Amino acid sequence: MDNFEFIPGETWLSTWMTPVVTVPGYLLVLSALRRFVAARGKPFELKKVVIVHNAALSILSAVLWIALASELKVLISNNGFFNVYCDVQAEFTKGRVYLYYYINYIFKFVELLDTVLLVLRGKPTPFLHVYHHAATLVLCWSQLRAQSCVQWMPIVINLWIHIIMYMYYALHAMGRKIWWKKYLTLLQILQFVVGLVGCVGGFLPRTLHDLGLTSMPRCHGTYDGALFGIGVLATYLHLFIKMFKESHGSRRQAQQKKAL
């Protein structure tokens, strides 16, 4: 664990062929399953599978969050927040912390089953859902390869959100009425805001340093990795805000009509 390194071409699922094959394959599988369910004439009853799947992901997210948060606490305590945040000397691109980033990346393959289960159960699969799963897998892969210094921030927040989110899905599958779904969406929006601020905060010192406009240390990572990460998080923020407005705006209008 202490010697772990993400080496493109050597580490499992590290080559550029991984996202190139996985994302189109994911979309093709979904299309094939939709046709299969339609030909079958009725969706599958997978209540127990859905409960186990979501409960397991909630628990695994909690375990990984605790492990990563504990490791970051030690690193920040020993090296200072800025050194961990900016990683000027590329000290934190291997070892336990990078292993936890990698395990989080592996989780993204498992999470593709979310959509598979929706299709098998005859449920709708909105663009946001499909895009988010596919893009997040590519995002995690790209940040591991780019050795982006701030990737720990979105990962820590996302794992925490996933603990709550998958618990919600498990409880919902059990038939429980959940009153806090609205606030879960707001938390998801907040995570993208914080993630964007964190990523831009790591990208700017590097850019200003290279332009000779500041003497601040040069944060570790690549330009393409940073720009891709910021771009993807920005699309998430836009799409989740749009979904929130459409969902809760339509509910508000329906309530107003009932009151008339």
Q: If you had to describe this structure to a student in words, what would you say it looks like?
A:
This protein is globular. The N and C termini lie far apart (63 Å). It has one domain. The longest helix has 37 residues. With 260 residues, the protein is mainly α. Helices cover 75% and strands 0% of the residues.
Concise structural overview:
This protein is 75% helix and 0% strand. The protein has 260 residues and is mostly helical.
List the helices and strands and how they pair.
Elements: H1 17-40, H2 47-79, H3 81-86, H4 96-110, H5 113-120, H6 127-146, H7 152-173, H8 181-210, H9 223-259
Helix pairs in contact: 1-5, 1-6, 2-4, 2-7, 4-6, 6-9, 7-8, 8-9
Number of E strands = 0
Main sheet summary? none
Shape: globular
Radius of gyration: 20 Å
Order of helices and strands: HHHHHHHHH
Structural domain count: 1
> Helical stretch count?
9
The span between the termini is 63 Å
The secondary structure category is mainly alpha
Q: Roughly what is the average pLDDT, rounded to an integer?
A: 92
Low-confidence stretches: 254-260
Q: How much β-strand is present in the residues?
A: under 5%
Helix content percent band: over 70%
